[in-house]
Amino acid sequence: MTDDAIERARERLREAAEGRADPAAVDAALERARAQIEELGLAAAQLEATLPAKIDGALQDGLREQVKPVGRNLAEIRGLTNQVIRRLERIEGDLLAERHARVDDLALLVDLVSSGWKSVDDRIGSLERSFQTGEGAIVYRIEERRAETG
User: Is the pTM of this model over 0.70?
Assistant: First the structure.
């Protein structure tokens, strides 16, 4: 080994020794760290005791705030649904009345048609009776009329 390398190693050892912390400073830092860890433990214990109640309150407040509009919306939807139901019931009643009116119209039409056909039947029956009894109009046969004129 060269003297130069030995000198460099010694220089590094001196620098390392100068940068080394004082044992009293290390002990003081450790003591401060222990005190702060104890304070952190106390703070964690306090949070552990009070945090669930605070979270519960915050959740209830948040939910209450969010549920209010939902409750209003549900009430509005309920009102609109009731209105739709009333309108549908009214339409159903109108349709039923209209159906009954159409059935009544159909019954009247059937009565008119049947009375018309009955009148036709009576008139044909009356003509048949008058033909059978020989009274009434004179019936000419077309063949006989053609022979007379031709």
Answer: no
Cα angle 48-42-32, degrees, rounded to a multiple of 5: 145
CB 139 within 8 A of CB 131: yes
3-state helix/strand/coil string of the chain? CCHHHHHHHHHHHHHHHHHCCCHHHHHHHHHHHHHHHHHHHHHHHHHHHHHHHHHHHHHHHHHHHHHHHHHHHHHHHHHHHHHHHHHHHHHHHHHHHHHHHHHHHHHHHHHHHHHHHHHHHHHHHHHHHHHHHCCCCCCCCHHHHHHHHC
What are the distances in angstroms from CA 18 to CA 11, 14, 15, 81? 11, 6, 5, 86
Decide: 19 and 13 in contact? Cβ < 8 Å.
no
Q: Write the pLDDT tens digit of every residue in 122-142.
A: 999 988 887 787 666 666 778
Q: How far apart are CA 62 and CA 128, in angstroms?
A: 98
Is residue 109 within 8 Å of 115, Cβ to Cβ?
Answer: no
